[in-house]
Amino acid sequence: MAQTAPPPGTPSPPTGPGPEEDNPWATGGIMFAGVLLMVDGVLGAIKGIAGIASDDVYTRINNYVFKFDVTTWGWIHLVLGIVIAIVGWGILRGFGWARGVGVGLAALNMIANFMWLPYQPIWAVVSLAIDTFVIWALCTGRLKPVV
What we know:
Order of helices and strands: HHHH
Structural class: mainly alpha
Low-confidence stretches: none
Radius of gyration: 21 Å
Helix content: 55-70%
Distance between the termini: 48 Å
Number of domains: 1
Shape: elongated
Largest sheet: none
Oligomer: single chain
Mean pLDDT: 79
Strand content: under 5%
């Protein structure tokens, strides 16, 4: 049986990934986001331990609106880092709760690193970039167990 062409003016079917197909960038991005969260969590914990262990590890800031004692910043980064690393592990395991928690913690970590900017500018900017990618990846792809 021969196929007939659709009448003129009929829209063509959409091309690209359908609702059941995954965007390979987003799917790979979710796995990478999980790894990045684990790495960023460990780095945050190290940053926190350094701040707790010695008050003179980081730059002293005199007139800063969000000035905390370096030890306080150390505890903030240590706790946040441990929780972020656990959520990164949850994303790699494909746990449903990890996606929303990961987005929320990445956003919270962005705020903490923005406030931390005067103390360690390069490290804070790298963490901001990592958190931006993590939020994008977790918001665009479907979560599947990969480990």
